[in-house]
Amino acid sequence: MYVDHPMEFMNKSCWRQALAASTASSNKKFTQEYQKVEQHLQSLLIDLMHRLYEEQVFIPQVDPQSLGEVLWNNVDQMFTDFISDEEMSLDTLKKALNRQTAALMTLALKQD
């Protein structure tokens, strides 16, 4: 969802321009709106981790807030890598994200 949906609206070139504008633009409103969307998506992922923790899906030592933040940071960085690399396919991105997320989840999930 986090990587398929954005590509429905813009191609890699447009995303690179949006990312550059969000960090370098003198247009404060654009920067704030871009960050607002990023924060909303991050919050959704963190909320999901909290719900899963409440359902006792994770081992007790897991901090769902931190886990959600780490997962979001990885998705966000991998998406940036994807839009920066003209040769990387969406399928390659999704496979890398699945592999990396699975590694983190292996550490966090209860082993029943």
Describe this protein's structure.
- The protein is mostly helical and about 110 residues long.
- It has one domain (about 5-110).
- The chain has five helices and no strands.
Estimate nothing, just give the exact number of structural domains. 1
Tell me the helix content: over 70%
Mean pLDDT: 92
Largest sheet: none
> What is the ordering of alpha helices and beta strands?
HHHHH
The proportion of strand residues reads under 5%
Shape: globular
Radius of gyration: 16 Å
Essential attributes:
75% helix, 112 residues, 5 helices, 0% strand, mainly alpha
Short description:
The chain is mainly alpha-helical.
Can you lay out the helices and strands and say which pair or pack?
Blueprint: H1 4-7, H2 12-24, H3 28-54, H4 64-84, H5 90-108
